[in-house]
Design goal:
Distance between the termini: 24 Å
Structural class: alpha/beta
CATH class of the largest domain: Alpha Beta
Bound molecules: pyridoxal-5'-phosphate
Largest sheet: 8 strands, mixed
CATH topology of the largest domain: Aspartate Aminotransferase, domain 2
Number of strands: 15
Oligomer: single chain
Radius of gyration: 20 Å
Number of domains: 2
Number of helices: 13
Helix content: 25-40%
Amino acid sequence: MIPQANPGAGYCALKTEIDAAVARALSSGWYILGNELRSFEAEFAAWLGVPHVIGCGNGTDAIALALRGLGIGPRCTVVTVSHTAVATVAAIEMAGATPLLVDIDPVHYTLDPAALEDVLRTPPPGLPPIRAVVVVHLYGQPADLDRIVPICRRHGVRLIEDCAQAHGARLHGQRVGTFGDAATFSFYPTKNLGALGDGGAVAVRDADLAARIAALRQYGWRQHYISSEVGVNSRLDEIQAAILRAKLPHLDAQNARRQAIAAAYTAAMPAHLAAPAIRDGASHVFHLYVLRAQGRDALQADLRGMGVGTGIHYPVPVHQQPAYKGRLRVWDGCRETERASAGILSLPLYPELTDDEVQAVCDAVRRCATPG
Ligand SMILES: Cc1ncc(COP(=O)(O)O)c(C=O)c1O
């Protein structure tokens, strides 16, 4: 079976460098907030093109820390999408804010700027004021920042970019994560830049904001053992930071490999299946290759029968999940979100797929895909 994701293959491909990095971290005798993390933060900041990166425990904490750093919490509403990892919404609630979910554009699966404009112009009654937007660059595709950035500016709301799936994606040549007030990353093992455990980071331009987020990630300490405000414990450990340092120099080449695999899949896609669209001016880094099909479940079963593993990202929109249903405010129904979740299917995609495996996936899709 060709799995949909394969973080073990990512380790094997860079085993020598990763093992050396882990050995270095282990023998340093310093395991939390040391040289490896400081170096990774500087190297990732230079790669991204922002002055400050703050490592933290995971991508969920990164969003919560970014919001809190920007002063967004209780008595604030934060707009985001329901078509995302539940983490995006969980993080807004972790920060103490109220999520308000809007629909996606059905072609690119990212936040619909028209819905955002509407909700900011006429916020639903009974909610605290809208103070921020968390835009998600889902699947590795930049959201429509050409429209979203000016909308946020015009309405005076903060923009946080959730880049958990989009390390290295660009819009008009500019990397995502450099457009908003803060950007957040996950280094979950399957991500385009993945640790071998949990990890996350916040990227910001403003030095005071960076210092506040760095304090919040460790009990609100600006001075050792003195909490200047209430913080949390969310640190990126030295071993994971060392692993990420070993992997970062390969990220751009790995993204190019993902793009080549995606292009091969799209070339093989039968007409009745919808290949993913790439936004004009965007470099999509294909964290996931998500096609859309009538009769998705039958297609998934057929592919499984031919040795091709797939995934569904995500089968149930956040606003319909048991923990959130009936409790979260949804603007205007999120109908495109609900439609999308019924038809999407993620094919195997990771840089270590061999050409033969890519060909096998293409052949399987061509053979089993009968119009539903
Ligand atoms: C879009 C998105 N946001 C946030 C997260 C949260 O990241 P983590 O799993 O590192 O907490 C993820 C990863 O699952 C994600 O895909």
